[in-house]
Write a structure and sequence with these properties.
With 417 residues, the chain is α+β, with helices and mostly antiparallel strands. Helices cover 39% and strands 21% of the residues. Bound molecules: histidyl-adenosine monophosphate (HAM). Histidyl-adenosine monophosphate (HAM) binds next to strand 6, strand 10, strand 11 and helix 12.
Length: 417
């Protein structure tokens, strides 16, 4: 029996890779425009890093991590998200000493042992961005504006931005006890997971997908009603700056996030087109994380975009790369001339194809069609002797004659374009 890929781990085939390049190149362009620089960190980290950052009582750490003991008896984990590793690198290389404000982005595979379904996989890809070193609400708005600019760049205007504030260690305890008092009288209505969450992570009961839990917590107190003065001012300023940058958003006071490191601003880009996998991107502020990981007290905020979900939303749009020119040859004798021209043109940045196997002219032209070549030329004895040939625009059959030289072909292709 042949070997297949592991469940929930996908191949990205050539027919789809154009779409992925488009997404990745758009993200790089926008993020670099906003002053972010790429950081690459390992896909594997010490398990302790994720326990300490994401939180022991989260679904990710409790049941979704790919953790194993390596041959040196060390517990290692395939990263379930990118923020923890990037903050580990920030501390390890003292990046804050080079520049107190770090703006970093990253891109790559993440791993979570979740039940696979459309938009939810065990190996998935994120593009994330993190800004550290500032508490200023302007940074929150900048990050959110950049996220919106990325979606605009790839022409996805449907996902909408929802924001919330989860408060800080000063106001969270009072909120947590208000929520627990509310839940106490309704425990019987909650699912088994939420009964457990009530003890370990009560905020998570608010975004349980079980309908009974949604009804039971519909009138639960929200973090926004319990923000301290400083958090309230911070959230008001984030909104003011979002309005100034012209970034549309709505407030979702029930949004809680599945990672423990968040403080104050949290947000999600939400779509109605992917069923229950509605978050295409998500993030928030994590002002205590760097210190919690043994670094100095440095605040931060960032997000990660789920690339599979973005690719699904882009759907059938065609991003395939097509040849500029297909050179067909009448017989064996012209193949050397065609080969030489092809390489001369590739050096000039044209995508050029020719037949490898001495196929018939008809079959060569079928291949030119299949590859969706923009232009074609047929070279026979006459063309080689005269040094001229007819170039055809495949879309409408328009023809134009030109010299069979690299310069002549460059000129005719730009004329016909
Ligand atoms: P997250 O909400 O866990 O946040 O993931 C961010 C995004 O990754 C989700 O909104 C979703 O689009 C995508 N995603 C998550 N799990 C899967 C999966 N199993 N299959 C496909 N896509 C998935 C984080 O990871 C934080 N590190 C974000 C962040 C950065 N917060 C601050 N900075």
């Amino acid at each position: 029996m042949s070997i297949t890929a592991i469940k929930g781990c996908n191949d990205i085939l050539p027919a789809d890779s154009g779409r992925w390049h488009h997404i990745e190149q758009s993200a790089r362009r926008i993020f670099e425009l906003f002053g972010f620089r790429e950081i690459r960190v390992p896909v594997m980290e010490k398990t302790e890093l994720f326990c300490r950052s994401i939180g022991d009582a989260t679904d990710i750490v409790e049941k979704e991590m790919y953790t194993f003991t390596d041959k040196g008896e060390n517990s290692v984990t395939l990263r379930p998200e990118g923020t923890a590793g990037v903050m580990r690198a920030l501390i390890e290389h003292k990046l804050y000493a080079v520049d107190p404000i770090s703006r970093l982005y990253y891109l790559g595979p993440m791993f979570r042992y979740e039940r696979p379904q459309k938009g939810r996989y065990r190996q998935f890809h994120q593009i994330g961005a993190e800004i550290t070193g500032t508490h200023d609400p302007l940074a929150d708005a900048q990050v959110l504006t950049m996220l919106a600019a990325f979606f605009h760049e790839i022409c996805l205007d449907e996902p909408s931005l929802q924001v919330n504030s989860l408060g800080c260690p000063d106001c969270r305890p009072a909120y947590r006890s208000a929520l627990c008092s509310f839940l106490e009288g309704r425990l019987e209505l909650l699912c088994d997971d939420c009964k457990r969450r009530y003890l370990t992570n009560p905020l998570r009961t608010l975004d349980c997908k079980v309908p009974g839990c949604g009804e039971a917590t519909a009138t639960a107190p929200t973090t926004l009603d319990h923000l301290c003065g400083a958090c309230n001012n911070h959230f008001t300023d984030v909104q003011k700056y979002l309005e100034l940058s012209g970034t549309p958003y709505s407030i979702n006071p029930r949004m809680v996030r599945g990672l423990d490191y968040y403080t104050r601003t949290t947000f999600e880009m939400v779509t109605g087109l992917l069923g229950s996998q509605s978050a295409v991107a998500a993030g928030g502020r994590y002002d205590g994380l760097v210190e919690q990981l043994g670094g100095p007290s440095i605040p931060g905020i960032g997000f990660a975009v789920g690339l599979e979900r973005v690719a699904l939303l882009l759907g059938e749009r065609d991003y395939s790369v097509v040849p500029d020119l297909f050179i067909a040859t009448m017989g064996k004798g012209e193949r050397a001339a065609a080969f030489q021209l092809m390489h001369g043109l590739i050096k000039k940045d044209f995508r050029v194809e020719m037949d490898y196997e001495g196929k018939s002219l008809k079959s060569q032209m079928r291949r030119a069609d299949k590859l969706k070549a923009r232009f074609s030329v047929v070279i026979g004895e006459n063309e080689v002797t005269s040094g001229r040939a007819e170039f055809k625009r495949m879309a409408d059959g328009t023809e134009m004659e030109a010299a069979l030289t690299v310069e002549g072909i460059c000129a005719v292709l730009s004329e016909l374009s």
